[in-house]
Amino acid sequence: MIADSVSESTAGKAFGIHRTLDQIGAIVEPIAAFALLQIIDIRGIFLISLIPGAI
Question: Would the CA dihedral through 12, 17, 19, 20 be positive or negative?
């Protein structure tokens, strides 16, 4: 999808941004889940995580 949506000259930048955002999500999301564990239980966290997946 990325390769089809950008020109060849900007493909490297597009893939780099995609990779960077993926890595940021891999770091931030477990920290956010741990912080939420202080407020709600594990079942609530799993239910909240279903929302982005459903969208």
Answer: positive
Is the separation of the CB atoms in 19 and 11 below 8 Å?
A: no
Residue 28 to residue 1: CA distance in whole angstroms: 25
Q: What is the CA angle 41-21-8, rounded to 5?
A: 150
pTM equals 0.62
Q: Is the pLDDT of residue 52 over 90?
A: no
On average, the pLDDT of the chain sits at: 89
End-to-end CA distance of the chain: 18
Cβ atoms 17, 26 nearer than 8 A: no
